[in-house]
Amino acid sequence: MRAAYFDCFSGISGDMVLGALVDLGWPVKNLERELDKLDLFDYQIEAKKVAKRGILSTQIKISAREEKKERTLEDILSILDKSTLEEKVKERSRAIFTKLASVEAKIHGKIPQKIHFHELGGLDTIIDVVGAVAGMNYLGVEKAYSSPLPLGKGFVKCSHGILPVPAPATLELLKEVPVYGSDIEAELVTPTGAAIISSLAENFGEMPPMKIEHIGYGAGQRDLPISNLLRVSIGVIRKAY
């Protein structure tokens, strides 16, 4: 069985996931072809090699030229339904956005269908979520596992104002997921990163016994006291191991 292990020693975000998957060998051209199936406009993806604390990695930057749109869950599901993505990619992407909507609804006291996603409805978030699912599918990953997640500390600015780290949506998404505190003053786990990993990973803990075949590093956008990287290992798990 082909499996992926997400080593989130510096947290996780959507762009870090995309960077790690590209670093593992997922061609950027394939990522762009998958996103073309969504019929989205006015975005650009840049992939480049960067070194974080001496470790070579892939950094993904998404430039969306549209005005910020406050899409509803219905809007996003409609984009997915009208796309020509593989059905299993659609299904997993729907599940992630539905989970996000449920969490936002609980926090703000609304029903999921009435939630406007604010930042989470932007093109970059749609690209992160669909890209993560499509990349795992391309690389043939059947199961995903993850390390416990470091939460960081401090405050983060968003459409609702200044919020504590982790943001309420992030913490709600990580219920029943092993987490731990960190002295680093930064948002190490973003809501998008939390939604992706809590939906895709079947278990959280140590790396399972596996024969590692490939290792990818996805770089975050900031420079931190530690390497701001997500490390993803892909390999084979057999009962004999």
Automatic annotation (TrEMBL):
Keywords assigned: Nickel
Spans traversing the lipid bilayer: none
InterPro entries cross-referenced by the UniProt entry: Ni_insertion
Pfam families reported for this sequence: Ni_insertion (PF01969)
Signal peptide range in chain numbering: none
UniProt name for this protein: LarC family nickel insertion protein
Organism: marine sediment metagenome
Lineage: unclassified sequences, metagenomes, ecological metagenomes
